[in-house]
Specification:
Oligomer: single chain
Order of helices and strands: HHHHHHHHEEEHEH
Number of domains: 2
Largest sheet: 4 strands, antiparallel
Strand content: 5-15%
Number of helices: 10
Radius of gyration: 27 Å
Strand order of the largest sheet: 1-4-2-3
Distance between the termini: 38 Å
Structural class: alpha+beta
Length: about 350
């Protein structure tokens, strides 16, 4: 009886101790990251409100002047004679829109530089990680606590800003703004892409800080790696989904929001002749006759309907890479700190 009573007493005493250590660790992580947390939340509130207000103003302008869906050069009969209003619209709202776009494009790099890179590098550089690890807190629990709060804050901030930007982009209309989904800057700013890219940059920065153990050097490496990843995504983006080939035997045009990858001519037999087969020059007409080109054309393109599927595929790849990098972080911490 005395032995069982002693075990129960020890267990009851151990549970509050473990709970106290968990609360203490979370409080320590919050204290270390509260400046970053306040900054991210302030960015979310200010940026989100600004984008929503801007979207409302743009939507009102389009309705007042009846130019929704009208570009500077448009084949829509409704848009005849409204080029002046479109130019005024872009002059009034284009600069603010581009600033918001730049914020979303730069957000992953900012997350990697100012949240990810210093996250562990500062602790390891100053030796303050030893305090947490000597308080009966395992290294993996310490790492999880260090990662959880920044990852949650970056996710909420990126998702909120992306939602505000999407509202503004849709309110202004990609045709009227001249901001089409397939441009690299628009694709990086729309939908789930900035959220996934921000988490990937956060993981890359954290790994750099863990391996290099110097804050400034980790930030430099993080900037280089995130830039290389952005370029890599840009180069493979058009291959994420198979493009659509559209034939125009009797002439025709695609909508402005189609991402054109290539084009050419149709022969009388229905074969496709890539552009450039008959280079411009005095012999171009003879070349077209030799290949039996009948005036038809074809275009290889990603239609606007593929935008969101492509964004989801790219975001999935980015999140998978982030998961791999995070697994590497845990493996390195386990190996270095037991």
């Amino acid at each position: 009886m005395s032995t069982a009573t002693e075990h129960r007493t020890a267990g009851a005493a151990g549970r509050p101790a473990r709970t106290s250590r968990r609360v203490g660790l979370l409080w320590l992580v919050w204290r270390q990251n509260r400046g970053m947390a306040i900054g991210l939340l302030a960015l979310l509130v200010a940026g989100g409100i600004g984008m929503v207000v801007q979207g409302g103003l743009m939507s009102g302008y389009l309705a007042q002047h009846d130019i929704a869906g009208c570009a500077l050069i448009s084949t829509n009969p409704r848009c005849e004679g409204v080029q002046g209003a479109v130019e005024d619209f872009r002059a009034a709202y284009g600069q603010t829109f581009r600033l918001a776009q730049m914020l979303l494009v730069m957000l992953p790099a900012l997350a990697g530089l100012f949240v990810g890179a210093p996250l562990l590098a500062q602790e390891l550089e100053n030796g303050t990680h030893k305090v947490a690890l000597t308080q009966s807190v395992g290294p993996l629990r310490w790492l999880t606590a260090k990662l959880a709060l920044p990852a949650a804050l970056v996710t909420v901030t990126a998702a909120g800003l992306a939602a505000g930007y999407l509202w503004m982009w849709r309110s202004g209309g990609q045709e009227t703004l001249g901001a089409y989904w397939y441009s690299h800057s628009e694709f990086l700013a729309l939908g789930p892409v900035p959220v996934a890219q921000s988490l990937l940059a956060l993981a890359v920065g954290t790994l750099a800080g863990l391996l290099i153990r110097r804050t400034v050097a980790s930030m430099v490496v993080t900037l280089g790696v995130t830039g290389a990843l952005t370029l890599a995504f840009m180069s493979v983006r058009k291959h994420l989904l198979p493009p659509v080939t559209t034939d125009f035997p009797h002439g025709g045009t695609l909508p402005d929001n189609a991402w054109v990858l290539g084009e050419g001519s149709l022969t009388t037999s229905g074969e496709r002749l890539p552009q450039g087969t008959c280079p411009a020059g005095p012999d171009v007409e003879e070349c077209l006759k030799v290949h039996h080109v009948d005036g038809g054309s074809y275009i290889v393109q990603h239609p606007a309907a593929q935008h969101w599927p492509m964004a989801l595929v790219e975001s999935g790849i980015a999140l998978a890479l982030a998961a791999v990098v995070t697994a590497v972080i845990y493996r390195v911490v386990r190996r270095q700190f037991g």
